[in-house]
Amino acid sequence: MKIGMRTQSFEVLVAAILLAATAYGQTDPAPPATAPPALSDTASSSYERRDSFPNINIYLPEGEASLRVRRLIRNALFETQIDYKFASGDIRTFLRYKYYARNYTYRIGIFDTIEFPDLGEESKVEFERVRGGLLLIGIPRDYNTRYFVLLQDDRLTFGDLTEVDNKKNNIYTKIAYQFGTKFDERMNSIVGESRGRITPVLTAFRDIGPEKTGLAVALTQSARFATGDYKYTKFEAEALRRFDVTTRTFIFSRLHVGAFFGYEELEDRTGPEIEHYSVPRYEMFRLGGRDALTSIRTNEFTQGLQEIHMRNEFFFPIFRNRDIKTGPLHWNTLYGITYLGLGTVGFKTDQLTKTRDAVVDAGLGIEAAISVRDFEILLGVLYAHTVAAPCDRDPVTNERVPDGRCLTGSKWAISARTIR
C-alpha cells in the first residue's frame, strides 16, 4: 500500500508540474482595441511584481522543495503551488483563484496533501491525506490593517482504515484581524490559509508595519454542521516587533499564543493523549519546527491544545551592499545571527505554568542576500540546541525512559527562497 501511494503521489506531482508549466508559459490573448480597465483599488495596492514570476523555496535537511507559479489577468490572480518532500514522498498541491474587487478580495482554493512517515521513523500509519477547499474573504481598511473571514472544509483519510479519524470532515469558519505587512507568511497562515505557507528559518521580513510592529489574531470555530464531525473553538495570536539596538544591528522578537476551547474529551479512546480529544491532530499547536523552536522535532510530545513560545533573533551585519562574486553568485549582504527561543506546550492550561515542562534553545546562524542573474535568493542557515528541556529518566539509573518524553536535541535548519 505504501509503495502504491508513493507512486500515486509522484504521478500527482508530475501532473501538477505540467499544469504549473502550462499556466506560466501561456501567452495572454491579443489586447482589445480599447484599453482594459485599470486594476481595482484593492488589486493595485496589493499586487506587486513579485507575484508575476515563479517562486522556488528549498528546505533542508527535510529535503523539501516548493514551487509557486502566479499569473495576474486583470483583476484575477491564478496560482499553482506544489510542495514535494523527496525523502518521504510527501506532496501538497494547491490551486487558488483570487479576485480583487474595489473594496475587498476573495480567494477560492482547493488542495490535496498526502503525508507519509519519515524514513527511519517507527510508525504504523501508512499515510495521512487531507483534501478540501476554502473561501477566504479579505477586507483591507488601509495598507496596514486587514480583516478576514474564512470558510473551509477538510476531508481526512488514512492508510490505516481503523484510524478513528478516517473518512471524517472538519468544517470550520474563521474570523481574523491582521496589522502590519501583508507579505508575512507566518501571520498570513494565522489569519487565512494555514497550509502551503512559506516557512523560512529566520524572520526575514524587514517591512513589518508601522512602528516596526505586526499583529495577527484569529478565532476559529469548528462545528458538526452538515457533514462536519468535529466541534471546537481555536484561538491563535502572534505579535512581531523589531527593536533597533544600533543603527546597524537589531532584534526581531516574535511571540505566539494559542489555545483550544469547547472541545470534547473522548474517554473511550486508548493510546497517546493526543488522540483523546475531538480535535484533529493537524490542527493542534506545535512547539517544534521552523514556526516555533528550531531545535525541537515534531512528535506527539511536542503538540498540544495550549501553547506559547517566543523567538528572539539578533541580527548583526558582516557586510552590506557589496558585490562579492563566487562563480555565478553575487553576495550582496550577509548577517550573522544569534538565536534564543523559549516556550511550552500541553493539553491543559496549568501545564503552561510548570517550569519543568518549559523548553529553552539557542543557536547561531547567518542570513544572506545573493543574486543569480535576474533572481535574488534569500538564504537562511541556523543551528539550534536545547539549553533546557524536559526528559523522562529512570530515577535509579538516570537513563532515558524508552518511548518516554524527551525534548532535548539539536538541529540544523536551512532555507533558500527566490525573490524576483
What does this entry look like structurally?
There is one protein chain. The chain is mainly beta and 420 residues long. The protein has a single domain (2-24, 47-419), classed as membrane protein fhac: a member of the omp85/tpsb transporter family (Porin, Beta Barrel). Helices cover 9% and strands 47% of the residues. It is built from 3 helices and 19 strands. The protein has helices spanning 2-25, 41-46, 185-191, and strands at residues 55-60, 64-73, 76-85, 91-100, 105-115, 128-140, 145-158, 168-179, 213-222, 232-244, 250-261, 285-286, 303-304, 306-319, 324-326, 329-346, 359-372, 375-388, 410-419. A 16-stranded antiparallel barrel has the order 1-2-3-4-5-6-7-8-9-10-11-14-16-17-18-19. The protein has a two-stranded antiparallel sheet with strand order 12-13. A hairpin with a 4-residue loop joins strand 6 (128-140) and strand 7.
Taking all residues together, what is the mean pLDDT? Answer: 84
Number of helices: 3
Biggest sheet, open or closed, and with what strands and sense?
16 strands, antiparallel, barrel
From the 3D coordinates, which CATH architecture would you assign?
Beta Barrel
| Run of helices and strands | HHEEEEEEEEHEEEEEEEEEEE
Task: Bin the helical content.
Answer: under 10%
The value of Rg in angstroms is 22 Å
What spatial order of strands do you see in the largest sheet? 1-2-3-4-5-6-7-8-9-10-11-14-16-17-18-19
- The helix/strand class is mainly beta
What is the name of the CATH topology?
A: Porin
Beta-strand share of residues = over 45%
